[in-house]
Design a protein that fits this description.
Elements: E1 3-12, E2 15-25, E3 30-34, H1 41-48, E4 56-61, E5 64-65, H2 71-77, E6 78-81, H3 93-98, H4 113-125, H5 141-155, E7 159-163, H6 171-184, E8 187-191, H7 195-201, E9 204-209, E10 212-217, H8 219-222, H9 225-232, E11 235-240, E12 247-252, H10 254-262
Parallel strand pairs: 3-8, 3-9, 6-7, 7-8
Antiparallel strand pairs: 1-2, 1-4, 4-5, 9-10, 11-12
Helix pairs in contact: 4-5
The structure holds adenosine-5'-triphosphate (ATP).
Adenosine-5'-triphosphate is lined by residues 12, 17, 35, 37-43.
């Protein structure tokens, strides 16, 4: 699915939060949104997944304006794994994943064998099949996150939006989750804080700073020690890892910087 965002702006009480955001995601691409706290990543995503209404600009999916789609039509095309996972009701894990099938059904239509198979398969892919009958609210943060990913898989939408999907996940599941998204070849847009993960897994990165797109391109085009200093305010060294051939970032805490500068070891 091709996703286009043009001139997207959103603000609260006249104060702009994101301004003039343009981006394009080509079919099958995994695009990461990176940027410091408060730079507008979640606000941008919420405008795309329709929790917020853009004040200017537009979003299109395969050339169709999002604003012209019903919410059901949107959900057939777009699955969301967001950070707000609390639910007022206590559903089982199975029921939560089954909700991913709703956009494909008529109201009150019974669940089919195909629905059951898709739910089972999705739970298996995230390693949560043994938890199917557990109550969702009793799960740990990471387990909940994996169930929400399973729901997105069961939804079978072509476009996946994720807001910090690896939040709460231990390192094994972080890698598994990112690998999964990559191997599914779904068109995906994800806010990410871990810049090494972003460089490793994303085809392209969009760097947000103070509500605007500061830079965009492949990790190699975008990421530099200069950008990390200017946008994130950190000192770091980047190398192409000899095994993965991907960019790998090492950060230098302030306490080390003085020492390293003196030794001439800090490379900009
Ligand atoms: N409803 C609101 N009213 C006022 N300010 C808001 C509102 N929603 C977001 N903001 C502000 O807009 C800015 C961008 O917030 P947003 O959550 O989009 O940032 P983010 O890049 O996702 O941050 P983080 O990395 O911390 O999750 C923040 O300064 C936030 O406080």
């Amino acid at each position: 699915m091709k996703v286009e965002v043009q001139g997207l702006s959103y603000g609260v009480k006249g104060v702009p939060i994101i301004q003039g955001v343009d981006l394009q995601i080509h079919p099958g691409e995994f695009v990461g949104i990176i940027g410091p706290n408060g730079s507008g990543k979640s606000t941008l995503l919420k405008n795309i997944y329709r929790v917020l209404k853009p004040q200017a600009g537009w979003i299109s999916l395969d050339g169709q304006q999002l604003s012209e789609l019903t919410h059901k039509e949107t959900a057939q095309r777009m699955a969301v794994v967001s950070q707000e996972s609390s639910s007022a009701f206590d559903f089982t894990v199975w029921d939560i994943v089954l909700m991913g099938r709703h956009p494909h059904k008529r109201m009150f239509a019974a669940d089919t064998r195909e629905d059951d198979a898709l739910v089972g398969e999705a739970l298996e892919r995230v390693g949560m099949e043994a938890y199917a009958r557990r109550s969702f609210s009793s799960l740990s943060g990471g387990e909940k996150q994996r169930v929400l990913i399973a729901r997105a898989l069961a939804q079978q939408s072509q476009f996946l939006i994720m807001d910090e999907p690896t939040n709460h996940l231990d390192i094994r599941y972080q890698l598994q989750m990112m690998d999964l998204v990559k191997t599914l070849r779904m068109t995906a847009l994800s806010a990410l804080h871990d810049l090494n993960m972003a460089c490793y897994f994303c085809d392209r990165l969009i760097v947000m700073n103070e509500g605007e797109v500061y830079a965009s391109g492949t990790p190699e085009e975008v990421m530099s020690a200069e950008l990390l200093r200017q946008v994130f305010g950190v000192s770091a060294q980047l190398i192409v890892h000899p095994v993965t051939r991907k960019l790998s970032i090492t950060y230098f805490p302030e306490s080390l910087q003085h020492h390293l500068t003196q030794k001439g070891a800090l490379i900009s």
